[in-house]
Amino acid sequence: MAFSRVLRHPLSPIARRSAFALLAIVIVMTIGTVGVKELGGFAWVYSFFFMSMVATGQGPPTNVTGNYAEIFVSIMAFVSVGTLITAIGVIFGPFFGYLFHKGVHFSEKELEKLERKEKVEPRDKT
Asked: Helix 13-40 and helix 67-120: axis angle, to 10°?
């Protein structure tokens, strides 16, 4: 079965989870961009740039003025960074789990080989 067919399948868990994760990112970034525009008084493009800098943990490029704007940006920093980390985990978690499982299995087989080798050829302890 071709990998592209797996991704295009309507019931594919990879595509469905990726879609939900990306949708969550789009929703958070949209709310953040609109909020920064309205509360901070920036242009649309600069508001999106501002939110992308906050969401990626790089920090805001400029300071916002006003208590409501500062509180909003502070809350959006936590929400957006959490959303991005969660989205990465949701999308790539099964792959990392698979790699971890394979790594543990490989390590166990290598340890068994070493133990068998030690039984056959004991080390000289003098």
From this structure: 150
What is the rounded distance in angstroms from the CA atom of residue 98 to the CA atom of residue 90? 14
Q: How far apart are CA 78 and CA 57, in angstroms?
A: 9
Q: Which of 89, 84, 90, 68 is nearest to 29 (CA)?
A: 84
Give the angle subtended at the CA of 22 by the CAs of 21 and 26, to the nearest 5°: 120
- CA-to-CA separations, 75 to 25, 54, 65, 71, 107, in angstroms, rounded: 15, 10, 15, 6, 43
pLDDT tens-digit profile of 36-79? 999 999 999 999 999 999 999 888 888 888 899 999 999 999 99
Domain boundary assignment for the chain: 14-93
Fold entry, domain 14-93: Helix Hairpins (1.10.287)
